[in-house]
Amino acid sequence: MLAKLKAGVEAIGNAAIGFVEELGQVVIMLVEAIVWAFRPPYRLRIWFQALETIGVGSLPIVLLTGMFAGLVLAYQSHYAFSLFNAESLVGGTVAVSLVRELGPVLAGLMVAGRTGSSMTTELGTMRVTEQIDAMAVMAVNPIQYLVTPRLFASIIMLPVLTMLSNLVGILAAYFLTVHVLGVDPGIFVAEIRDFVEPADLLKSGIKAAAFGMVIALVGCYKGFYASGGAKGVGEATTSSVVVSSVSILCIDYVLTVLMWD
């Protein structure tokens, strides 16, 4: 029994040490990426490629997710409020739910599944085929070339994707609520103005930027330090999506408490 207890404690301790080590390496990568962003050479073509891949490439799935999130919220809210003859609150409820929570979270999860996994796979393949080592030999800093553009592109594009997702979700909710369920359009819009403040949009953008930073950091870190050939790259990709998704949900709770307390 003592041997099993000792083995369990050692396993927990090793897991805790491994987590702290990985967290430290992620922070170091973040600092290096920020520092290298302000040092030449400035490869603008790579930056614009990263913006296009993360922003334009993720736009269809993010907008589709936002549309159906707005439709579901509108339908369920209308059903709940109709029990109390308060259907006029549907517009405000849908808008505040999308802007504060579902918009940035769903956009972050979709980008983590699409772009975060792509980052890990690409960098992991470069690592196991020794392309990253070849870059270092040719005096090209791998962090500046591979991580920095993806990091800043994610931070910039996630707020944009979130705002577009919020807009599409609210428009979809408007269509369903007004043209199908029969709520007065003036009341729908008025409730949105009462419920959603300009500060909510700013806070939603801050949330999305934080999610973008996490997605890029986790995706690049897992790929940058992948090992074990094709199997290792696959495991790193799976781990990247899982860690990014869980981190988004955890950070969402912390930011919600801090910004709307």
UniProtKB/TrEMBL annotation:
TM ranges: 12-38, 50-73, 151-176, 205-224, 236-260
Keywords per UniProt: Membrane, Transmembrane, Transmembrane helix, Transport
Localization per record: Membrane
Topology within the bilayer: Multi-pass membrane protein
GO cellular component, one term: ATP-binding cassette (ABC) transporter complex
InterPro entries, alphabetized: ABC_MlaE_roteobac, Permease_MalE
GO molecular function (one): phospholipid transporter activity
Similarity field: Belongs to the MlaE permease family.
NCBIfam families tied to this protein: MlaE family lipid ABC transporter permease subunit
Protein known as: ABC transporter permease
